[in-house]
Design brief:
Blueprint lengths: L8 H31 L5 H28 L8 H7 L11 H28 L3 H24 L3
């Protein structure tokens, strides 16, 4: 059945493509955060272990919201590791870094997701896609605040 939500197919496709990158970044950051939760060690273990759990739980909910928005626009959401690796701007983690490096890597990851989300705004605005703009605003708030909180842990 044709989709008639007031946004033409070409614009919906561009927005869905941008959201696919956001989904890949978010999922990659989720996986990295969960990995760090499992593998963090050192004097900040308890604090970071609990914080990382809060972060990956929030990211797990976010991937669902982003994927569902892609579906509402009429396109398939990417859902494989191979697709995420191609679409994500966040590098995959292959080693277990020290706790301080975990924090630095997560700051970079949250900032990357914020940049990806922000890059979708012009297309969403052009198409008057308020639901996507609202989703992007919510994601920006979370990622910018989380990056700030993580950076605060690195202050002397």
């Amino acid at each position: 059945m044709d989709i008639d939500i007031g946004i033409n197919e070409k614009d919906r496709k561009k927005i869905a493509d941008g959201l696919s990158h956001l989904l890949a970044d978010t999922y990659t950051l989720y996986l990295k955060t969960h990995n760090y939760h499992w593998n963090v060690t050192g004097p900040m273990f308890q604090t970071l272990h609990l914080m990382f759990e809060q972060h990956y739980t929030e990211l797990a909910l976010a991937v669902d919201a982003i994927a569902e928005r892609i579906r509402a626009l009429g396109f398939a959401a990417p859902g494989t590791y191979a697709q995420f690796v191609k679409l994500s701007s966040i590098p995959e983690e292959t080693k277990i870094p020290a706790a301080t490096d975990m924090i630095k890597n997560l700051v970079k990851g949250h900032e990357a997701v914020a940049r990806t989300a922000r890059a979708i705004f012009p297309q969403a605005d052009k198409a008057s896609d308020e639901p996507t703009a609202d989703l992007l605003t919510q994601r920006l708030q979370v990622h910018e605040k989380t990056a700030w909180m993580l950076r605060s842990l690195l202050e002397k």
